[in-house]
Amino acid sequence: MKIMISGGGTGGHIFPALAIADAINRLHPSANFLFVGAQGRMEMEKIPAAGYPIEGLWISGFDRQKMWRNFSFPFKLVSSLAKSYRLLKKFKPDAVVGVGGFASGPILEVAHRMGIPTLIQEQNSYPGVTNKLLARKVNRVCVAFEKMDAYFPNEKIVISGNPIRQSLLASNWSRTSARKDLGIAEDQKVVLALGGSLGARTLNQMFAQNTAAIEARPNIFYIWQYGALYEEEYSQSKTAQLPNVKAVKFIDDMARMYAASDLIVARAGALTLTELAALGKAALLIPSPNVAEDHQTKNARRLTESAAAGLLEDKNAVDGGIDRIQELVGQKEVLETYERNIKSFYRADAAERIATEVIKLAQEA
């Protein structure tokens, strides 16, 4: 059995893709895989590191804010469609999976035209334009949220949940052992601030512009992940030098950081929310306003409506975010409510559900 998996661009697409591949491997150990990503994006490094082969397409997203940046888009699209055809013709997959990201569109489009069974996995509560267009052509649509028939054909929908890295669930870190390893005192409150693998400017500005407020509360320890795009700008900032701040570009051992934390401050991407739900972590969500169709705000509201997380608008984060964090991290009952309620949003068998659908499609071909 040969399976092609396309997509990437961020950890929010890459890690679910790897989780799906691993699950297919567990259910069908003889399966062969080929990943397809976008040249220059992080999947070109992360996928081979996980032991899977990958090919890159010359493709990028369509910039709706700065139209002049789209001059090369038609050429990239034609190039990607042509390479997609060559890859599909050579690899001859029994099924093709799209997890979102720049590379999903061309591969799924060409696979559909070639009559190869296809499946897309939509992580968010509001789908992007590419997946909405592809949904009319693919055989299955695996989703994480209820009521997605407003965007996808109901007969194609499989409610699967979002798959996450098994390393998080298999971790042996406890709150005590993680803090000891990180050199954090037991009586300190710990806030883990995540801007995603590339970083989030608003969260970084919130830290950099509130040095005095952070320094004034040494009983609160901050783990601040500023991201690869912002290393030069923030790694040597005054806030990053404070004794109650651990500033890092990227976090490899997320299980340890999650275990040590009392409160997570993060964007509201689908992967992050799934990880928080799986681990039962209290969170203050600051959705990015710069994503397609403002889907992160829609993701966050699904949780806040169930008292499963707190919500802070991006526009209020730089000036008011640290005050809100310092207030919230001391509200034990509120945090316990968030921890209890967010667990209901996690489906433990998400990767296996998706893998089963992929295998069915491949065997029916």
TrEMBL record:
<keyword id="KW-0133">Cell shape</keyword>
<dbReference type="GO" id="GO:0005975">
    <property type="term" value="P:carbohydrate metabolic process"/>
</dbReference>
<keyword id="KW-0961">Cell wall biogenesis/degradation</keyword>
<dbReference type="GO" id="GO:0005886">
    <property type="term" value="C:plasma membrane"/>
</dbReference>
<dbReference type="GO" id="GO:0051301">
    <property type="term" value="P:cell division"/>
</dbReference>
<feature type="binding site">
    <location>
        <position position="197"/>
    </location>
    <ligand>
        <name>UDP-N-acetyl-alpha-D-glucosamine</name>
    </ligand>
</feature>
<feature type="binding site">
    <location>
        <begin position="10"/>
        <end position="12"/>
    </location>
    <ligand>
        <name>UDP-N-acetyl-alpha-D-glucosamine</name>
    </ligand>
</feature>
<keyword id="KW-0573">Peptidoglycan synthesis</keyword>
<feature type="domain" description="Glycosyl transferase family 28 C-terminal">
    <location>
        <begin position="191"/>
        <end position="353"/>
    </location>
</feature>
<feature type="binding site">
    <location>
        <position position="251"/>
    </location>
    <ligand>
        <name>UDP-N-acetyl-alpha-D-glucosamine</name>
    </ligand>
</feature>
<keyword id="KW-0328">Glycosyltransferase</keyword>
<feature type="binding site">
    <location>
        <position position="124"/>
    </location>
    <ligand>
        <name>UDP-N-acetyl-alpha-D-glucosamine</name>
    </ligand>
</feature>
<comment type="function">
    <text>Cell wall formation. Catalyzes the transfer of a GlcNAc subunit on undecaprenyl-pyrophosphoryl-MurNAc-pentapeptide (lipid intermediate I) to form undecaprenyl-pyrophosphoryl-MurNAc-(pentapeptide)GlcNAc (lipid intermediate II).</text>
</comment>
<feature type="binding site">
    <location>
        <position position="165"/>
    </location>
    <ligand>
        <name>UDP-N-acetyl-alpha-D-glucosamine</name>
    </ligand>
</feature>
<feature type="domain" description="Glycosyltransferase family 28 N-terminal">
    <location>
        <begin position="3"/>
        <end position="142"/>
    </location>
</feature>
<comment type="similarity">
    <text>Belongs to the glycosyltransferase 28 family. MurG subfamily.</text>
</comment>
<feature type="binding site">
    <location>
        <position position="296"/>
    </location>
    <ligand>
        <name>UDP-N-acetyl-alpha-D-glucosamine</name>
    </ligand>
</feature>
<dbReference type="GO" id="GO:0050511">
    <property type="term" value="F:undecaprenyldiphospho-muramoylpentapeptide beta-N-acetylglucosaminyltransferase activity"/>
</dbReference>
<keyword id="KW-0472">Membrane</keyword>
<comment type="pathway">
    <text>Cell wall biogenesis; peptidoglycan biosynthesis.</text>
</comment>
<keyword id="KW-0131">Cell cycle</keyword>
<dbReference type="GO" id="GO:0008360">
    <property type="term" value="P:regulation of cell shape"/>
</dbReference>
<keyword id="KW-1003">Cell membrane</keyword>
<dbReference type="GO" id="GO:0071555">
    <property type="term" value="P:cell wall organization"/>
</dbReference>
<protein>
    <recommendedName>
        <fullName>UDP-N-acetylglucosamine--N-acetylmuramyl-(pentapeptide) pyrophosphoryl-undecaprenol N-acetylglucosamine transferase</fullName>
        <ecNumber>2.4.1.227</ecNumber>
    </recommendedName>
</protein>
<keyword id="KW-0808">Transferase</keyword>
<dbReference type="Pfam" id="PF04101">
    <property type="entry name" value="Glyco_tran_28_C"/>
</dbReference>
<dbReference type="InterPro" id="IPR004276">
    <property type="entry name" value="GlycoTrans_28_N"/>
</dbReference>
<keyword id="KW-0132">Cell division</keyword>
<dbReference type="Pfam" id="PF03033">
    <property type="entry name" value="Glyco_transf_28"/>
</dbReference>
<dbReference type="InterPro" id="IPR006009">
    <property type="entry name" value="GlcNAc_MurG"/>
</dbReference>
<dbReference type="InterPro" id="IPR007235">
    <property type="entry name" value="Glyco_trans_28_C"/>
</dbReference>
<dbReference type="GO" id="GO:0009252">
    <property type="term" value="P:peptidoglycan biosynthetic process"/>
</dbReference>
